[in-house]
Amino acid sequence: MNRQRRTLLLAAPRGFCAGVDRAIQIVERALEKYGAPVYVRHEIVHNRFVVESLEKKGAIFVDELADVPTDAPVIFSAHGVAKSVPLAAERRNMFYIDATCPLVSKVHREAERHEKDNREIILIGHRGHPEVIGTMGQLEDGQISLIETVEEARHFTRRQPGRGLAYLTQTTLSVDETSDIVSVLKERFPDIEGPKKEDICYATTNRQAAVKALAEKCDGLLVIGAPNSSNSMRLVEVGQKSGCPAVSLVQRATDIPWELLESAGTIGITAGASAPETLVEEVVSAFADRYEISVKEIVTNEEQVVFKMPRVLEA
Question: How many domains, in total, are found in the chain?
């Protein structure tokens, strides 16, 4: 019996970014150097497969520092933390390692610079996301105003019109939606100062561009990632807005919506920045079990970014 054929187009770049890769390596190296258990405050990255893999190696994930014994190493997640977190760790004489992505740390330093220069600060981002909580927590409560939508940008009121004004952004936002919000802010406040270098990280930008390139070639698109992963959810939105008729977020191959893809001859596959390549291979294998497949990679950019490890783990 002849099996149906399917063409799989793999986005490139996809999957792990340099910040995620570094954060995972930090946990693995800490386990090698200090032995299990090593504690991690919050998910190191937003992916259950990654978290469970590290748990098997001896990492223990907790919600708060109070859940960590004072004599055990604790690692802060790639999303960054408020300044109060390392201060609390120091008060308890805890040994901690900060796995914050350097590109998130860059946004933190920008917030400090703007405050020093007496500017009122707007952060464009998603309320409740760990990165947003961490960035807003770099300054005293009320020093940073959060804007999530174009509508909020239209109605934003400066608290102190005599001060300068600046905006920052979460690193994992939709490039197009953020551009729309920034346009409104610049139109309303011509004096507003933006980042010297774009806050939305290279990996987010590259993965969204890759999805745009895929979407026009596909009848269906699968984004491998977690529902609490901002960059993965933005890839879903970009695929939908780019005209792909069937776009789905899947965490594992077991989540593939086969009925939705029944008439799709060409399926695009990408992965959010916190999803490992193992999960892409798993999804491709699931298609190979059902269909005769041909696999082609669509390359829109090549990434060679690598971040240094914390000095304490370099030896």
Answer: 3
